[in-house]
Amino acid sequence: MIQHLESERLYMRPFKISDAADLFAMDNNPKVHEYLWQQPTLELEESVKIIEYILGQYERNQIGRFATFLKETDEFIGWTGIKFIDDHVENGNSNFYDYGYRLAEAHWGKGYATEATGKWLEYGFQEMNIPIIHAYAHRENGASNRILQKTGFLHQETYPDTAGVLWNWYALNNPTSKQ
Q1: Which positions of the chain have pLDDT values less than 70?
Q2: Using only C-alpha atoms, what is the Rg of the chain?
Q3: Rounded distance, CA 129 to CA 123, Å?
Q4: How far apart (Å, rounded) are the C-alpha atoms in residues 117 and 126?
Q5: Is 12 helix (H, G, I), strand (E, B) or coil?
Q6: Rounded to an integer, what distance in angstroms lies between the CA atom of residue 141 and that of residue 149?
Q7: Mode of pairing for the β-strands spanning 66-70 and 5-6
Q8: How far apart are CA 36 and CA 161, in angstroms?
């Protein structure tokens, strides 16, 4: 599994349990969860469990969300990355590669999500040779929908989750694939 990925201003690495406090600080903010089921993390132990889950994904699938930092300051800004969805169904799909990210509020609007997305897509398509990567965003999350579209994802459909909340489903085919 890859151990380090860099873009111009960012570096991404696998999560460690020691990242729990940073993850908790981000996920405890209700604004971060406005388009994420409205359930901020309330206890540090929840963040530890999330990281343990991610570590299991690394073991099982050799990929997953990575802790993301500013190169200049080593500051944790959130997570980004590709994961293989094999433990639940999303929009009727399972066993697919999904791109996603979550950034701390202080780092919104600075181009970091777009920058990380470009680097992850390059890695997923060129190094992992993934034929298609999916992504999904809350229909009303204008910033995330714009980032996905700007980085090449194509809107496929809008679908309701089990609570009736509408999500936009995206796909991006590997441009280097000989299909």
Answers
A1: 37-38, 178-179
A2: 15
A3: 8
A4: 14
A5: strand
A6: 12
A7: unpaired
A8: 12
Q: What is the pLDDT of residue 38?
A: 66
* pLDDT in the model for residue 163: 87
| Order of all β-strands in the sheet with 5-6 | 5-6, 10-14, 66-70, 76-85, 96-103, 132-138, 166-173, 154-160
| pLDDT on residue 60 | 96
Does this model's pTM top 0.90? My answer is yes
Instruction: Say what the pLDDT of residue 36 is.
Output: 82
Q: Where are the beta strands (DSSP E) in 22-90?
A: 66-70, 76-85
* DSSP percent split of the chain into helix, strand, coil, nearest 5: 30, 30, 40
Written as six digits, the tokens of 138 are: 């809350």
H-helix or E-strand spanning residue 99: strand 96-103
CA distance 76 to 93: 31
Report the alpha-carbon distance of residue 6 to residue 30 in Å, rounded.
Answer: 29
Q: How far apart are CA 103 and CA 80, in angstroms?
A: 8
CA distances from 35 to 3, 111, 156 (A): 30, 19, 19
